[in-house]
Structures are given as structure tokens and as C-alpha cells.
Amino acid sequence: LVRYSAEGLLQLGPLGSTAFLPDSKCLVDDGRTRVPALKKCEDVARPAQRLWDFTQSGPIVSRDTGRCLEVEMSKDANFGLRLVVQRCSGQKWTIRNWIKRGRQ
């Protein structure tokens, strides 16, 4: 499962904890390539590389580079779509399921 945390992490792995679980990976924009990487969250050299800003029906923007996570058409990719990081083109994202924090 993919989750977006309040801290700005886009993580792939099991649910159940906000800590870095052994099988969790963070989506990273290294600033050099167009291909986002999945790396162990604790192994990312610069923590800002693993942080993203997201608003419902808006872009997903790397806090480190200012580039956007976007989808482009590709004959070579699964389902004909490829995930890339690039200069923002206006793509909008929606997260369907939310887990809201309870009142404290």
C-alpha cells in the first residue's frame, strides 16, 4: 500500500505504524533523473529528498527540488503509463481514502 504521511512522506509498504518499518520504502526525487526512486527511508542521504507536498486535487511536489510527480504515456511501461518527476505541467492528484487523526 502507498501512504502519504502528515510529515510529507510518500511510502510504499505495510500499514500499521508511522515509523519506518523494515519493508517500507520512500519515494525519492534525486534531482538528476526523471525517474523517481524507491529507497529504504532511513537510507536516503538528504531527508528533504523523501518529502513531498500534496493537496487534494492538486500536484504532488518534491520539497527538495520543486519538481512534480507526474504520469506520462509510454509504450514501454506497464499499462502504457510511466511515473516521472519533472517540471510541473498542471497534473492533479486525488487520494481516495484518508485516515484522519482523532481529536487530542
From TrEMBL:
<dbReference type="Pfam" id="PF00652">
    <property type="entry name" value="Ricin_B_lectin"/>
</dbReference>
<feature type="domain" description="Ricin B lectin">
    <location>
        <begin position="23"/>
        <end position="93"/>
    </location>
</feature>
<protein>
    <submittedName>
        <fullName>Polypeptide N-acetylgalactosaminyltransferase 9-like</fullName>
    </submittedName>
</protein>
<dbReference type="InterPro" id="IPR035992">
    <property type="entry name" value="Ricin_B-like_lectins"/>
</dbReference>
<dbReference type="InterPro" id="IPR000772">
    <property type="entry name" value="Ricin_B_lectin"/>
</dbReference>
